[in-house]
Amino acid sequence: MTKIGVLGASGYTGLELIRILLNSKQVKISAITSEKYTRTNISDIFPFFKGRLDLIYETLSPEVISEKCDFVFSALPHKTSMSVIPSLLKAGKKAVDLSADYRLKSPDIYKEWYKEEHTSPELLGSAIYGIPELKRKKIKAASLVANPGCYPTSVILALAPLIKENIINTDSIIIDSKSGVTGAGRKVEEALLFAECNENFKSYSLASHRHTPEIEQEISEIAGKKIKITFVPHLLPVNRGILSTIYSDLISDLTSDKILKIYENFYKGERFIRIMGHGKSPQLRSVLGSNYCDIGFQIDRRTKRIIVISAIDNLVKGAAGQAVQNMNIMLGFEEYAGLEDIGFFP
């Protein structure tokens, strides 16, 4: 069995990684780290793991992790992961980084949006941006995969067929996204307190969210030209899930049936992409706990715009599930291993 390490295994993403990895018969979790809970059994802090995983949290040491593990997931915060990843790669390990540290190809853009100098810019060119449905071959050959952000995953998957087939005006893209509070991480912050979030709905990081350059980078690559977007995120008073509504102007007068066929052909054979069809709106409760991305659309003939809606679980397809999907590809496993769950309802 492949021995797995999970760095930052006490945050929402790290915990979700463990939950999913426990479903896989091809891997064994050999090491978990947490600065907060060092030398404590994970099942003492999170009783839902009792009887399934009884590992002790340890202090992060790249050398120790390299000795214990064949493959590593880094669920460390942005700016922290890049201090660990180079040592793991030097030791011959493969890794999926769930932070933003290796998603952007330009160190200058990273510094602009994350206010920090990148300490291993030499790895930015070789790190593969890990959306399996779009970059499977590159992921298979990679040693380091930069797991996409949750918002970008929902947006890029929804837009890729339209951009690839030159159906929309790429100067007119407006993205309105809503996320559950787990998207902000497991931390104490006034804006995330129950009394602040419950029965409330608000936008944040207007025209300044860090996922903006990530989305622009990837859709620009698909288009073969530079694209700029308007991206507005919102905080929903729910635990998990992302719903993105994307507006853009149509270039040609295609029928809904033709656009539906384009989506279906583009994602033919992709197990985790579900095309709902025109006039059908995806919803969060259909994807929670699963690695699915549901996509629907509607053409507004009056304004000559297309409205595309996508829904994902931000902790699964938007983070841990996609990371495991990437690992499966990198290690030559069945891509769906550990990810068969269809989610839960209600």
Report the end-to-end length measured between terminal Cα atoms: 35 Å
Instruction: State the CATH architecture of the largest domain.
Output: 2-Layer Sandwich
Instruction: Give the mean pLDDT.
Output: 96
Task: Write down the CATH class of the largest domain.
Answer: Alpha Beta
Biggest β-sheet description:
7 strands, mixed
- What fraction strand? 15-25%
**Fraction of residues in helix:** 25-40%
- Low-pLDDT runs of 5+ residues are none
Question: What is the H level of CATH, i.e. the homologous superfamily of the largest domain?
Answer: Dihydrodipicolinate Reductase, domain 2
The ordered string of helix (H) and strand (E) elements is EHEHHEHEHEHEHEHEHEEHEEEH
**How many H/I helical runs?**
11
Number of strands: 13
Global geometry? globular
For the largest sheet, list the strands in their spatial order.
8-9-7-10-13-12-11
Structural class: alpha/beta
Indicate the radius of gyration in whole angstroms.
20 Å
Total number of distinct structural domains: 2
CATH topology of the largest domain: Dihydrodipicolinate Reductase, domain 2
